[in-house]
Amino acid sequence: MIEVGPDTACMLYLAASLLAVISIWLYQHKKSKKKEILTFQTKHFICDFCTASYLESATKAYTRCPQCGSLNTTKR
Ligand SMILES: [Zn+2]
Predict the structure, then answer these.
(1) Ligand 1 centre and the CA of 16: distance in Å?
(2) ∠ CA 35-40-46 to the nearest 5 degrees?
């Protein structure tokens, strides 16, 4: 058995505690960086005919208003 004095035991205890806290912090930090940034594929449009607002995919050339059914252009 290795004999350890009280000073050495206290230092080992504090070092182990500090190492545990730092490793938990690093794990949480690394985990938080992995979160994906959500990109919105939809865009907010306002109907030219009835002024209703709606969300629609921005990749289409024309969008159909869900309120009145009219076609609105995505290009302004
Ligand atoms: Zn409309």
Answers:
(1) 66
(2) 155
